[in-house]
Design goal:
Radius of gyration: 18 Å
Number of helices: 6
Structural class: alpha/beta
Shape: globular
Helix content: 25-40%
Bound molecules: zinc ion
CATH superfamily: Carbonic anhydrase
Order of helices and strands: HEHEHEHHHEE
Strand content: 15-25%
CATH topology: Beta-carbonic Anhydrase, Chain A
Number of strands: 5
Length: 166
């Protein structure tokens, strides 16, 4: 797949005309969402190039996004956060301990130690509850700016629709 990058990029770059955009996101918005390959945050939410930060990780988990959010807010001026989790997320299918067990089975002692350093892989059993939990986490986080508008959403991979939870 990576072998096609250059060819694909040549096509993209030949039509590219957005090189003038400023660094800070125009909509002062940061979206936290899952890395799931079926989600296109920009297209599904109508976000154009230069308008928002999109922070992606496994599950769209807020605790995993704090480092990026601090940079987004303090250095690049965003003042709104939207947290998205989604239906059929891989994070609903395992428990953190199970992933630790998988790693312990065949990985080196160094790898096991590195996994221990990660600790919680932040899997979760219920989508809506976890969206609320992540929004509360951000609202109570000392590094997230006071007055930040924070909302929580679910993206439905079956329909492409979003619904607001909080
Ligand atoms: Zn997911």
């Amino acid at each position: 797949m990576a072998s096609a990058f250059t060819d694909n990029n040549n096509v993209y770059a030949s039509k590219f005309d957005k090189g003038h955009l400023p660094l800070p996101p125009a909509n002062k918005l940061a979206v936290v969402t899952c890395m799931d390959a079926r989600i296109d945050p920009a297209a599904s939410l109508g976000i154009n190039l230069g308008e928002a930060h999109v922070i992606r990780n496994a599950g769209g988990r807020a605790p995993d996004a704090v480092r990026s959010l601090v940079i987004s807010q303090r250095l690049l001026g965003t003042r709104e956060i939207a947290v998205f989790h989604h239906t059929d997320c891989g994070m609903l299918t395992f428990k953190s301990e199970e992933l630790h067990d998988i790693i312990k089975k065949d990985a080196s002692p160094e790898a096991v130690k590195a996994a221990d350093a990660i600790g919680d892989f932040l899997a979760f059993p219920k989508i809506d509850e976890n969206v609320k939990e992540d929004v509360e986490f951000l609202k109570g986080h000392p590094l997230i700016l006071e007055g930040t508008k924070i909302s929580g959403w679910v993206y439905h991979v079956e329909t492409g629709k979003v619904s607001q939870v909080v």
